[in-house]
Structures are given as structure tokens and as C-alpha cells.
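Posting this for the archive.
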Amino acid sequence: MDRRTPAMALAMTALIASMGAATPSPKKTPTPTPTPTPSATPTQGDGTLQILTYRGYAEYGGTSPRVNWVGDFEKTTGCRIARLDTVQTADDMKKYVDQRAYDVVSAGPVLAASMIEAKQVQPIEPAKVTGYDDLTKRFRDMTKVSGKVYGVPYLWGYHEFLYDSIRIKGGGLKQVFQSDRVSLQDGPLTIADAALTDDSVDDPFELTKSQLERAMALLGEHKGRTYWKNPLDLVKGFATGSLDYAQATPYYRLLLQKAGKPVKAVSARKMTGWLDSWMLGANIPNTDCAYRWLSWMAAAPAQRDAAAWVGLAPANLKACKGRAKQMCDAYGADKPKWLDRVAFAARPPGGCRGSEGECTDYGTWTEQWGTLVN
């Protein structure tokens, strides 16, 4: 799943400026990320918090509220942030949670499922999270497993496929995957996007063996296409004219359009999306400050600042004002019918049954993806 960072925004600004186009306002470069130290010891109930999240999700430091919506948390609650580890990718986050314990972690669907399975997190009591009911019900329901709540919804997004409207005259999702000049995100869940070209697929994250094979065959038809880990690659592709299509989020469409690039989004019956939620670490001696953090991050002010900063949509619609309004509009946050077109990611569970047999699990997806890109 693509998550923008302030550093990436600066890099894109520099690139687009070199093209002589209008540029978005630059933002603060984040401080270097600390390296976690291996530890299996749970955090202590001493009024401090140890936090793991994505870069830009919890900005701490500086005098501007735009880049410091965490500082007031300490002043207001009396809890102190003893450690704030930030990462760029879900793979990095998995390495961190396996090295040490955290009080709270922001996680996407795959990592969330893994941590629940490994008992690295514990269920959350919604009654202890102030403003929990302000969060969109659909997102609240997505954090439940066997009737228990495991997350406080925070930021979400979805993928669309951009195309150069000068070079390409419209087209649909099948044309995207039939092109050599397309850049796809490098990750197993991109298989779900390919599966959306198959009319027999209802939920792209619950694929039977035959549906998975068809999606992989489609992906394997074009060995020369690129797979990006850094969104800057797709921006470069459109800037240099080397790409016709790219998998991205609405934020990048807005960024490129603001820079004068003629990109549009391909029309599709469905899109794949994801939700990041704050989760509560297991075996915490005292959860008081952790719940104060969850309440702080569920509230509109924090979600508004984070959504505007990272280019995603907030789970709390009360945050869709001021500087976050553009992101809410771009993602259709207040349009339930539009969101019905988004298939939100779940770790492919395995064991479910489709029209063509039993569903494949995430381990199979990972193996198939590794064979494709390596």
C-alpha cells in the first residue's frame, strides 16, 4: 500500500520544478528514523509510550501545528512519548514489531492480521476510546475479528490507474494490464488489482486457485513492465514519457495534474483500497496512556493534520475540513456509494469458498509474487 511521506513530497517537488511546471508548496523534511533495538520485554506502565508508525502519521517536533500534532498530546494528557519509531514500508514495520514490543502500532490489513495471529496485539475496548463512534462505521467493522475490536481506524486510501491522456485515449483496466508501459506497485496485494479484470471475481482478496492462476498469467504476459517500491519512480515515468499507465493513489493524480501533466484515472468497476488502524500492544502492564493515545488519534484534529500531511483520507469525517478537505474530496470520503466501489484489503484468508473452489491464502500469494518479480 502506498503511503506518502513529507520527504517524498520534497523529492517530487524538486523533480517537477526541474520540468518547469507549477509546484506544490514544499514541506518539512522529517528527522532521521531511529533504529529499533531488539527486545522482547513489554513496555512499562510508567506514563510513557513506545510507538511504531509510518512516517508522517505522527509528526512530533517543530513549532507549526501542521507538523506537530503530537506535541500537544503530552501537554494535555501528561503522558510522555519515550520512543517514536517510524518506517516507510509494511515490511520494515513487520521487522520492527518482531524485534521489540510497542504500546501502540499503526498497521495495515496484512500486518494487522499477522499481529493478531501472533498475539502481538490485544483487543481494544471501544468504550475507552473517546470519540470512537465518530469513526466511519464501515471502517470500525473492518477492525473486528471474531466479534472483538482490534483497531482504531485512522487513515485510508485506494488505488487507481493513471494514464497519460495525450498518449492514451481512455481505455479500461484490461488495457492497463495488457500494456508494456505500465508501472505497478511491488507487492503481493497487486494481484488483487489484476484479478479485477476477471468478471468471475467478486472479492479480489478472496481468490480461488484458478482465479489466482488467471491473475498471475495476466501479470506474467509482460515481463518487461516495471514494479515500483518508491512512488517517485512513477512520477519520473510520467515526467519523462516512459509510462502510459501507473498504479497510484488520487494524491499522485492531483500532484501530477498540479504540475501540468495530463494524467487521468482509468474507469473501473472496482478499485482496491486499504485501511490503517492504531492497534494496542499485547502484555502492556498499564494501558492508560495507550488509550489516551488512541483517543487522541481518533479525534478530528489529529486525523485532519495527518490526512493533509500524508495525502490520505481520514476515518473520522469530522476531520474533512480545512486543510484535509482536498484529500476527503479526492477520495470521496463522504460519498458512501462511491466507497461501495472500493474493495478494501484483507490479508487473503484461505479457507473461504468461492464459485470455483477454496480460496488461496496469503502465503501462496507471496510465493507467486516472488516468482513473478524475481
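Residues 60 and 71 are 6 Å apart (CA to CA). Residues 10-44 have pLDDT under 50 and may be disordered.
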